[in-house]
Design brief:
Helix content is about 60%, strand content about 0%. The protein is mainly α and about 60 residues long. It has one domain.
Length: about 60
């Protein structure tokens, strides 16, 4: 899952539409298995961090999840 989110983050850096099916599929897997991936969700969400300099591109999609 971590690798998939890393790839999605790279896609978003390249301005690929977040509604692209593969991105939505990975986010769906994450949403459907929140308990299993809680550590990964916390890492990529950068919870508690208010400085956007430290945000990942994928942060809003994960936080929305």
């Amino acid at each position: 899952m971590d690798l998939m989110l890393d790839i999605i983050n790279d896609y978003l850096l390249e301005h690929i539409d977040p509604e692209t099916p593969i991105i939505q599929q990975v986010l769906g897997l994450l949403r459907n298995n929140k308990a299993e991936h809680q550590d990964i969700i916390e890492y990529w969400s950068v919870l508690g961090e208010d400085n956007p300099e430290y945000y990942f591109e994928v942060i809003l999609l994960i936080r929305r999840g």
